[in-house]
Each structure stands twice: as structure tokens, then as C-alpha cells.
Design goal:
This protein has 8 helices and 9 strands. By secondary structure, it is an alpha/beta fold. The protein has one domain: Rossmann fold (3-Layer(aba) Sandwich). One of its GO terms (molecular function) is aldehyde dehydrogenase (NAD+) activity. InterPro entries: NAD(P)-bd_dom, NAD(P)-bd_dom_sf, NAD(P)-dependent_oxidoreduct.
Length: about 250
């Protein structure tokens, strides 16, 4: 195993928690940003900066192949700070495209680069109405014309692509994030998830768990994360302070 990771979305809220965990464990991390102004942030984190847009397929493929990763991690989103309600309508359209077309480009690049495993961020709050707590095999709310059906279809596309690729595909269905750089200091809504615990799930999935879908959220009766706890050893109470102590 090469101990090299390509982290797409390294400057996001999860990426900025995840990169230090990986580096502390001896991984060499190449991380993406769309903005040249954020390169120094990545360098300061110990990450090899890669300035690339996921929609530029040729440049993305060259970047991933050049990084030579054993594992590719997909933490890309395109949402406004604090989920600003005045900007969310257009952001959900962009995010759905990213999950569909952007994922297609990243999966293709990972395969061409010879990556062994692909870990991808999904969400746990677009299940079709049914009996709670929702489990991974329950259907998503992909029918309808509203923006959340569009979101669910983007999620379904991402998940299908990751699981169908000739790699070990891991999909993490995250709950609603809170904590540093998320715009929310405390848990809000159903199926909450601290950003540091979300990042730790991705860290664990780099080396643990069979391919498949995993709910990753705190226990509040909305979804069950029993599968992630059993297969990944994931704990919703994990925080970065544990990494610092070790």
C-alpha cells in the first residue's frame, strides 16, 4: 500500500479536520482547492496543494494520476456559508450537479490512477418518508419536482457511481453537520453530526469496512448508525482532542 491519499475538498469543514488525522497516521495527502489563494492553507496543514476544478475532467485526471493515490476521498460540496437560506436554492442545484457530473469525473480519475478504495460523502437526510430510524437499505426521496428531490437524485447518482466503480467504494451518509466552520455551533434538526466525528468516519473508512453505504449520525431516532459502529468502529462522540492527546 502506497500510503498516499487524494483528498478532494481538502479546504472544506470536513477536509480541514480529516487531513490532520491522515497525516498523523503517516499518510501523504494531496488535497484539492478551486482557489489558488488557499494553497498556503493546505501547505500549512501539511497537505500537497492541488488547484483544480472537478468539472475540468482532463486536468482532474492528470492531478489524480500524478498523485498516485491508494485511496481517493470525495468530500466536495458547493454550499453557502452557514447554509444561507437566501442562497440555498441555487446552491442545491449546483450541489446536485457536483454530485452527478463531478463525481463521474472523480471516479473516472480514481480508476485511471489505479486507486484501490474510494470514500465518498453523502447525506442521511433525504430518505423517503417511512418508518424511522432509517437504515441504509431504505429508499431515498428521489421522486418529485422540488429542490430536495433534486438533491436526492444527485445523492443517488453519486452513490450509484461510487458503488459501481471497479474500486472498493465506501459511501458515508452524513447527518446534519455542526461544529467548527459549519456555521452551526450546536446540533440542530434531525440526525445531527459533529464535523469532527464526520471526518473521523472518513478516516476510519480509509482502511476499515467492506464496500457499501453507512449512515453516520448521532442517535436521535431518525437514522441508525449501527452499521458504521460495527464495521468501522465509529463513535459519534469522537472529537479532535483525542487525536491531540495521542
Amino acid at each position: 500500500m502506497s500510503k498516499r491519499i487524494f483528498l478532494a475538498g481538502a479546504t472544506g469543514a470536513i477536509g480541514r479536520c480529516l487531513a490532520p488525522m491522515l497525516i498523523a497516521d503517516g499518510w501523504q495527502v494531496a488535497g484539492t482547492t478551486r482557489s489558488a489563494s488557499k494553497q498556503q492553507m493546505l501547505v500549512d496543514m501539511g497537505v500537497e496543494p492541488v488547484v483544480v476544478d472537478v468539472f475540468d475532467r482532463a486536468k482532474l485526471e492528470a492531478a489524480v494520476i500524478g498523485a498516485g493515490p491508494d485511496v481517493v476521498i470525495h468530500q466536495l460540496t458547493d454550499l453557502p456559508a452557514g447554509l444561507d437560506p437566501d442562497r440555498m436554492g441555487e446552491a442545491l442545484v449546483r450541489n446536485a450537479r457536483l454530485r452527478d457530473e463531478g463525481t463521474r469525473n472523480l471516479v473516472a480519475a480514481a480508476v485511471k490512477a489505479g486507486a484501490r478504495r474510494l470514500v465518498a460523502q453523502s447525506i442521511a437526510f433525504v430518505y423517503a418518508a417511512g418508518t424511522m430510524p432509517y437504515r441504509e437499505e431504505d429508499p431515498l426521496a428521489v421522486t418529485g419536482d422540488d429542490e430536495w428531490a433534486l438533491t436526492a437524485r444527485g445523492v443517488a447518482s453519486l452513490e450509484t457511481q461510487v458503488l459501481a466503480a471497479p474500486v472498493e467504494g465506501i459511501v458515508l451518509r452524513y447527518g446534519g453537520l455542526y461544529g467548527p466552520r459549519t456555521g452551526f455551533d450546536i446540533a440542530t434538526g434531525h440526525a445531527p453530526l459533529h464535523v469532527e466525528a464526520a471526518a473521523h468516519a472518513a478516516y476510519l473508512a480509509v482502511t476499515r469496512g467492506p464496500p457499501g453505504i453507512y449512515n453516520v449520525a448521532e442517535t436521535d431516532g431518525t437514522v441508525t448508525s449501527e452499521k458504521a459502529a460495527a464495521a468501522l468502529g465509529w463513535d459519534p462522540d469522537w472529537r479532535m482532542a483525542r487525536l491531540i492527546r495521542t
